[in-house]
Task: inverse folding
């Protein structure tokens, strides 16, 4: 029974430690072919705007259930 708990604890630690690895990396326009560079620059700008809105949601302590709506409103306000 003790080994089961150790195994379960190890599985929980591994699962929680791997979570940050699932985040999306920023696109590097210099690492793509020249014909795709404009699209990569556009995608990077979008990723930065989303990251700024996520930071604003964190600072405002938005509840998880309201987070998507808050981020969408932030992105819409940024476009105007």
Result:
């Amino acid at each position: 029974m003790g080994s089961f708990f150790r195994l379960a604890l190890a599985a929980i630690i591994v699962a929680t430690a791997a979570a940050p690895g699932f985040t999306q990396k920023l696109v590097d326009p210099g690492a793509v072919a020249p014909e795709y560079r404009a699209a990569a620059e556009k995608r990077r700008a979008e990723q930065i705007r989303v990251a700024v809105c996520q930071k604003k949601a964190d600072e405002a302590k938005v509840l998880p259930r309201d987070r998507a709506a808050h981020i969408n409103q932030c992105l819409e306000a940024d476009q105007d």
Residues 29 and 36 are 8 Å apart (CA to CA). The mean pLDDT is 83.
